[in-house]
Amino acid sequence: MHNYLDIQQKLQLLELKLRRELLLIIKDVSPDSAELAQTATLEDIIDYMPKVKLANTELFTQLMKLDAALCQLDLGLYGLCSDCEMDIEISRLIEDPTEQRCASCQRKYMREHRLELRLSH
Questions:
Q1: Which segments constitute the Zinc finger DksA/TraR C4-type domain (predicted)?
Q2: Total number of domains constituting the chain
């Protein structure tokens, strides 16, 4: 999993999948937006989604995590926990290549933010 090309390929496949999902959602919003889902940069897509009231969706969250993972990969920081900076467990990265926290920090985050998380659903 720590092979740069393998990780990059997994993230690219995830990006294609998320772009297809976005296309299905926004094609009804505006005919012009279909091109955006296919050709715009990930950053432009993320900037666009709040404008069409899609910032509170799971897709938006996934795109944000994907963008973070791609940036971390470019910086050589992929696989490090965003909270403690220790290695994220391989099993977590295999399950979700955009994972941002190790299991310990994720549990802590969930405990500290459980009320916020409940209110957002």
A1: 76-109
A2: 1
